[in-house]
Write a structure and sequence with these properties.
Blueprint (H helix, E strand, L loop, with lengths): L2 E7 L3 E6 L6 H10 L6 H15 L9 E4 L13 E11 L5 E7 L1
Parallel strand pairs: 3-4
Antiparallel strand pairs: 1-5, 2-4
């Protein structure tokens, strides 16, 4: 059996917009109680960016279906199923990944 260690490098850039009037202190407290111990909006921005980079345009646990470039996800037909308080603006998503491959002996 041949085995390979691979390292995939890509760079994605986003602007994460969070409506702090909608996702206010009460929302933050409720989120923290159920999901992650996030106290600052930048922690949410990091989580949202990471989930977008890993899973693409899909439901994000704790946030739901969020806007992408100001539009609802293509697979959502009901506007009420979209969390409009969060918008992920895509600056770039790296489709051409750098991959390093090393055979493991």
């Amino acid at each position: 059996m041949k085995r390979f260690k691979t390292t995939v490098t890509r760079i994605d850039e986003y602007i994460i917009e969070i409506d702090d009037n909608e996702l206010n202190k009460q929302w933050m407290d409720d989120f923290r109680h159920v999901f992650f111990p996030f106290y600052e909006y930048d922690e949410h921005a990091e989580q949202l960016a990471q989930m977008r980079a890993r899973f693409g345009e899909s439901f994000i646990e704790g946030y739901g279906n969020v806007l992408v470039d100001g539009r609802k996800p293509w697979h959502i037909t009901d506007e009420n199923q979209v969390n409009k308080a969060i918008n992920i603006k895509i600056i770039s998503e790296d489709n051409d990944c750098d991959v390093e491959v090393e055979e493991i002996k």
